Structure formats: C-alpha cells, structure tokens
C-alpha cells in the first residue's frame, strides 16, 4: 500500500489541497443540479434549509472523512481496514456509488463538450431555439448519436486518460488555475443574469423565506444534495486527505471547502433562476437549466457567445475535476485491493460505465418517445436517470455517510478523531464537543431519517 501512496505523491501546498478538494466538490452538482432543486423546493426557503444542512451535517461528515484519510494515509477501503478490519466494506460501498454516479456524470460532462463546440461553430443554431437544440441533443428527433455516444465518450476518454497517468500533480495544477477562474466567471454571470430585465422576480423568489414552503421533503432533498455536492459518503475526501501531512489544519480546511462549494451552488442558483424568469423558459425542465435556459441568457446579452463559450468550458472543467476524483476511487480500489493492472482497469471500468450511461441520455427523451422499456403495457417505470439519482443521492451516499459517522463516532471513537483533527493538540478546536455530539448522535440520526424516508416515500428527487 505504501508504494502506491508514494506513487500518487502528496499535495504540493495547502492551497493546492483546498482547491483540489474544492475541485472535486464543485461540479455538475452545483451548477447543473442545485438550481433546479432550489427552484422546485421553494427558492429562498430551500436555500435556508440547504445552508443549515451543509453547516450542521455536511461539515461534520467532511471532517470525519478528512480525519480518517489523514490518520491512515490510505484510500477509503484501506483506511477503514486499517482502523477496523470489519468495516472495509463501507469503502466498497462508496466505490459502487461512485461507479453509478459516473455513469450519468460522464453523459452530462459530454453535453458540456457538445455545447462548447456548438458555441464555437453554430451559436446561431443554438439561439434559433435553445430548448429545441437541447431536446434535439437528447434525441427528440431521432437517435442522439452526439449527446449519448460521441461526446460522452470523449469526456470519459479524457477522464480515463488523466487517471491512467496518475492524478495528484495534474489535478492540483489544473484546480489551482481553474477554480479561481470559475469563481470570477460565475460572479460575473450572476451579476449579469440578475440585472436582466424581468430577473427581479427570480431574485425575489430566491431571497424570499416562506416557512409554508418547507416540508419534510425539502430536508431530504437538501441533505441528499449536500452530500452529492460536497463529494461526501463515498470516500473521495478520505482519499484526498490521505495526501495531507500533520502540518495541515483539517478543521479550517473543512470550513473553507464547504464554504467554497456552497458559494458556487448559491452563485449558480442566483445566476440561473433569475435567468429563467427573465427569459421565460419553462422552468420544469430539470436537467435543462444549465443548457437550454442559459443559452437563452447568452443570446440576450452583448458578447453572450463569448460568455457562453467560457461558461460551458468552465462547466466542463468543473465536471472533469469531479469525474477524475470519482473514477480514481473505483480504479484505486480495483488496483490496490484486487491487484488489477491500472491501465486495463481504467479501460474496463470505463467501458462498462459508458454502456450503462448511454441509457441515461437515451432515457431522457428518445426512449420516452419510442416507448421502449418503461412504458411497457402502460405501466410507467421511473426514468432511468431519475432512478440513478435517487439511488445515489437518496440512498447510497447517505448510507456511506451514515457508516462514516457511526464508524468515527462509535467504533474508532471521537477522542481519537479529535486528536487527529487537531494534529495532536496543535490546532485549536473549540467546537470539538459539539462536533463529537454531531458525529455520534445528530448526524447518524438525521441521515438515517433520510434513508428511511427515501425508501418509503419513493422516488422524489426534484
Ligand atoms: N461533488 C461533485 C459535484 O457536485 C460530484 C461528486 C460526488 C464528486 C461524489 C465526487 C464524489 O458535482
């Protein structure tokens, strides 16, 4: 194991780690998923719940993962195995979760490449009817060769290529350059979207706290989204923290990564929702927010094509720094625990997840139109994409997070964990008693509630 760790290297700087962990966290979840969920769950009311979930449960689980990683200096499965042999399967569960997420992540990542090229070569066609362009990519007018096969394959090939060469250096360098750029651009676009004529209604909706809009489901959606967005519950943060030294302050790192990730989600929300109101595009489109809706925005601002090109490039980079972190989890597991050869593993895993992923895009429009599979005999089966999100966000990630907190709180013990979190007392952690309480009681109970509700309430992921 130690050779592998040496091969992977260490983060070169404190900032490098923060930006790489933020690079994993900031991804499609923030820009593509979050605004739609905020819109559907009451705007401002949802933001309040989401921020509370991140502040209370998200930070708790993230620190627990950081502590496990830095203590053992191992990947997710190795880390749990070292501390208690019986729990290494929890890491295995994370690997499975990552695999399922990647199936659809690579598809949407592919769409971002398609849009980059569209903005370079045929922006007029996009602008002619942004919604139709998006739906066409999904297959309303025939098999979506580009949206389901060609571009996702390119995205996956790029992800695999980087992974097969090892990542620590590449990710760190890339993240250091791209994350600040992403921030600047998002803020610029948010200001532009909020000042569009007619955007005021959207801004007001996102700022209005209406307690009557809050229900049990808002909490469930917010917590599931928080885990996904912060890359928690599947061991990615355990693996990343395994590259840290005792000099690093895990407590402040947790705060910074959570704040950065949440800011990006909020900026994306304040960019997309006001734009929806200003352009009047049907907000019920879910996954289309970041594509169809924003294309409408770019169309209506001076220099919009350049902004569009930059936006989809950054969406692509945000997606790839996340997809790398997920694929690395699966590959590292098969290489380190099952003794498989790295390059071959990357190819095999990529092929399987690509084939499953194709059905994700097909299921969005093409298969619904063709009526294959889930509309058999009039019985409506859930759309595959919704089902994958439900499985990962509502069940598997919370399950992983639940066992991480139980493991740290009860099996390994909060005293050990706090000792590691403070680098043996070097750093101050005045909230340590509160954190211990959250890891042992509040977080596992809250997470268990979302798992049970997810099982019994069914598939509401909106
Ligand atoms: N956090 C990433 C996003 O918001 C997705 C992700 C989930 C990455 C789980 C790693 C692990 O897009």
Keywords for this structure?
globular; about 450 residues; mainly alpha; disordered N terminus; binds phenylalanine
Global morphology: globular
Mean pLDDT: 85
Topology pattern, helix = H, strand = E: HHHHHHHHHHHHHHHHHHHH
Helix coverage percent: over 70%
DSSP summary, beta strand count: 0
In DSSP terms, counting alpha (H) and pi (I) runs of 4 or more, how many helices? 20
Per CATH, the superfamily is Amino acid/polyamine transporter I
Structural class: mainly alpha
Main sheet, how many strands, which sense, barrel?
none
| Rg on CA atoms, Å | 21 Å
Strand content of the residues, in percent?
under 5%
- Enter the CATH topology name: Amino acid/polyamine transporter I
Assembly state: single chain
Bound molecules: phenylalanine
Explain this structure to me?
With 462 residues, the protein is an all-alpha fold. The protein has one domain: Amino acid/polyamine transporter I (Up-down Bundle), CATH 1.20.1740.10. The protein has helices at 2-8, 14-25, 28-40, 44-72, 76-83, 88-121, 123-128, 130-138, 145-164, 168-194, 200-207, 216-229, 236-241, 250-279, 289-299, 304-338, 342-364, 366-370, 384-421, 432-457. Helix 2 crosses helix 16 (304-338). It is globular and about 60 Å long. It starts with a helix and ends in a 5-residue tail after the last helix. Residues 1-6 and 373-381 have low confidence and may be disordered. The site of phenylalanine has 15 residues, from helix 2, helix 3, helix 12 and helix 16.
